[in-house]
Write a structure and sequence with these properties.
The structure holds two protein chains of two kinds. By secondary structure, chain A is of the alpha/beta class. Chain A has helices spanning 43-50, 71-77, 93-103, 108-121, 137-148, 167-184, 195-201, 219-224, 241-249, 274-284, 299-309; strands at 5-14, 17-27, 32-36, 58-63, 66-67, 78-81, 155-159, 187-191, 204-209, 212-218, 230-235, 254-258, 264-269, 291-294. By secondary structure, chain B is mostly helical. Chain B has one domain (2-245). The chains are: A alpha/beta, B mainly alpha.
Amino acid sequence: MSAAVEARAVEKRYGSLVAVVDLSFEAEAGEILGVLGPNGAGKTTAIRVLTTILEPSSGSFAVAGVPHSRPAEIRSRIGVLPESAGYPERQTGEEYLRYHARLYGRNRDDARAAARSLLNEVGLGERSRSLISTYSRGMRQRLGIARALVNEPQVVFLDEPTLGLDPAGQRQILDTVRRIAAERGATVLLSTHLLAEVEETCSRVLILNRGRVAAQGTVAEVAARAAAPRSGWLRVPPEETEPALRALAALEGVEAAAGGQPGLITVRLKEGDSMNAAVRAVVDAGIPLLSSELEGARLSDAFLAMTKAA
Amino acid sequence: MRVVTAQELRDLWLGGRGLVLTFAFSLLLSVIAYLVATNQALNFLEHRETVNLLLQVAIAVGALLALLAAADTISGERERGTLESLLLTPVPRLEISVGKLVGSLSLWLAAFLVTIPYVWFLGRGVGLVGPALATGIVVGTLLAVFLASLGLLISVFATSNRVSLSLALLVLLALFVPTQLPSSAQQGWAGGLFLRANPITAGEHYVGKVVTNAHGWSQDLSWLLSPLLCAVVFGTAALIVGARFVRLGGGATG
């Protein structure tokens, strides 16, 4: 098993309730794998199984080359930010990280140095001696990420690290995630609801739905699987709306209609490349095209299509 | 082993509840010491009985603190969301259980330290201080180990912290009920067996024999059998169960 994470037909059941079924995937060293899925899709359960917090009902997996039969060894090689992680309110950020560094076998001096270095890395250096009770949610999440890195992990699992954060906080966390993969060479499994950010942060995605893998691959591969027909819109000068609609009516595979605003035309495409033909038809008719957009080619559309269809 | 234990002690005593609980305990002892000293001055209580009464209260309340602290350990961390981070480290579950048990027992030890000056004050002059303190530390430690282990066991399996604390208190009340029974109910072989089987009543009976009746420490050792057995059995069970069943989810299946 050379992949950083390799799962084979992993299943987790609670009595008759099936949380994860036939989970099979691989994550390569240094890549950021986005784990997506609607609420209740099994993302957190899958992460808890892979991080050895829960035992799989069947199947096998290996993390950082260590088979799941050796959970303590896996735990020593991974870093995890659990969903809704709690923090000891009466400890300072530095004390908290120092304690966790000691739990991984570091001596006092090493633990102190690691705690300070990590707090600086996640931008909490100036608040290292403040009580955690005074930290904002975003600061706590960054502290959690620092804790996940305290043992120099080969694989980092981040379960909804941006949950409840404002856009600036989300941006900070995602920047940190990118740095972890780029500078540390660690594999990151990132569970999140922020599809737009996944598109720009993750090299590959794994979409879960009702405990099963609905899709996996690069963002482009998964996005391309969005179910046809796709749609888009064209914007022309308002007085050119009727001529543009006439030009589009002559095309096969394109259904055009006036949009809600003057000059806006919505198009429904039966084939993926019909948008090119629609744009060409409008331009060839001598109508100035102000703007156009093809919808249905984004990860969000693929996500919605796959999680709705299953 | 030291890292978790040291952190548990730090959490409890530096900024935690340890100091507050110990302060409340000392206030309680002050009130009781004042009342028994007054009663002694009025000849309602003999000198030895005042010490016995205070010591029994100290043992009971000190062990109760250990029980409640232990019942809050695993289930409390679960509810505060801090258990998962701890379980994600390579630290063995046994080490976590030992750390939490030691932390809980430290409350009893602190309670005993607070008790020493009160026993000295009430027992001075009749050569009672030494035997009373020796009996108190032995019986109190056995009961504290038993109750803290029981609390840890409950906490491991409890589905919520409220359930854990409620159940722990319920068990404690059930164990203390026999101490309030009329003396007629404690007569006969069945009554005697009942008193000896219950570690709380047996322990308190032993303390009473040594402190009030001035028996030698070895004279009534059979009364220590139940507290000793419970401490060993429940202490071992707590560590075995803790090593195997400390999990993210409570309940029997975890």
